[in-house]
Amino acid sequence: MLEEVLRQVQDGRLSVEDAAKQLATFENLGFAKVDHHRKRRQGFPEIVYGEGKSAEQIIGIAKALQAQNHEVLITRVSREKADQIRIVCSDYQYDSVARLLFWKHADNRESKLNGYVAVVAAGTSDLAVAEEAAVTAEVLGSSVRRFYDVGVAGIHRLLHHAEEIQQAAVSVVVAGMEGALPSVVGGLVAHPVIAVPTSVGYGANFNGLSALLTMLNSCASGISVVNIDNGFGGGYNAALIHQLINKGAAGL
Amino acid sequence: MLEEVLRQVQDGRLSVEDAAKQLATFENLGFAKVDHHRKRRQGFPEIVYGEGKSAEQIIGIAKALQAQNHEVLITRVSREKADQIRIVCSDYQYDSVARLLFWKHADNRESKLNGYVAVVAAGTSDLAVAEEAAVTAEVLGSSVRRFYDVGVAGIHRLLHHAEEIQQAAVSVVVAGMEGALPSVVGGLVAHPVIAVPTSVGYGANFNGLSALLTMLNSCASGISVVNIDNGFGGGYNAALIHQLINKGAAGL
Amino acid sequence: MLEEVLRQVQDGRLSVEDAAKQLATFENLGFAKVDHHRKRRQGFPEIVYGEGKSAEQIIGIAKALQAQNHEVLITRVSREKADQIRIVCSDYQYDSVARLLFWKHADNRESKLNGYVAVVAAGTSDLAVAEEAAVTAEVLGSSVRRFYDVGVAGIHRLLHHAEEIQQAAVSVVVAGMEGALPSVVGGLVAHPVIAVPTSVGYGANFNGLSALLTMLNSCASGISVVNIDNGFGGGYNAALIHQLINKGAAGL
Amino acid sequence: MLEEVLRQVQDGRLSVEDAAKQLATFENLGFAKVDHHRKRRQGFPEIVYGEGKSAEQIIGIAKALQAQNHEVLITRVSREKADQIRIVCSDYQYDSVARLLFWKHADNRESKLNGYVAVVAAGTSDLAVAEEAAVTAEVLGSSVRRFYDVGVAGIHRLLHHAEEIQQAAVSVVVAGMEGALPSVVGGLVAHPVIAVPTSVGYGANFNGLSALLTMLNSCASGISVVNIDNGFGGGYNAALIHQLINKGAAGL
Amino acid sequence: MLEEVLRQVQDGRLSVEDAAKQLATFENLGFAKVDHHRKRRQGFPEIVYGEGKSAEQIIGIAKALQAQNHEVLITRVSREKADQIRIVCSDYQYDSVARLLFWKHADNRESKLNGYVAVVAAGTSDLAVAEEAAVTAEVLGSSVRRFYDVGVAGIHRLLHHAEEIQQAAVSVVVAGMEGALPSVVGGLVAHPVIAVPTSVGYGANFNGLSALLTMLNSCASGISVVNIDNGFGGGYNAALIHQLINKGAAGL
Amino acid sequence: MLEEVLRQVQDGRLSVEDAAKQLATFENLGFAKVDHHRKRRQGFPEIVYGEGKSAEQIIGIAKALQAQNHEVLITRVSREKADQIRIVCSDYQYDSVARLLFWKHADNRESKLNGYVAVVAAGTSDLAVAEEAAVTAEVLGSSVRRFYDVGVAGIHRLLHHAEEIQQAAVSVVVAGMEGALPSVVGGLVAHPVIAVPTSVGYGANFNGLSALLTMLNSCASGISVVNIDNGFGGGYNAALIHQLINKGAAGL
Amino acid sequence: MLEEVLRQVQDGRLSVEDAAKQLATFENLGFAKVDHHRKRRQGFPEIVYGEGKSAEQIIGIAKALQAQNHEVLITRVSREKADQIRIVCSDYQYDSVARLLFWKHADNRESKLNGYVAVVAAGTSDLAVAEEAAVTAEVLGSSVRRFYDVGVAGIHRLLHHAEEIQQAAVSVVVAGMEGALPSVVGGLVAHPVIAVPTSVGYGANFNGLSALLTMLNSCASGISVVNIDNGFGGGYNAALIHQLINKGAAGL
Amino acid sequence: MLEEVLRQVQDGRLSVEDAAKQLATFENLGFAKVDHHRKRRQGFPEIVYGEGKSAEQIIGIAKALQAQNHEVLITRVSREKADQIRIVCSDYQYDSVARLLFWKHADNRESKLNGYVAVVAAGTSDLAVAEEAAVTAEVLGSSVRRFYDVGVAGIHRLLHHAEEIQQAAVSVVVAGMEGALPSVVGGLVAHPVIAVPTSVGYGANFNGLSALLTMLNSCASGISVVNIDNGFGGGYNAALIHQLINKGAAGL
Question: pTM of the full predicted structure?
Answer without folding.
Answer: 0.86
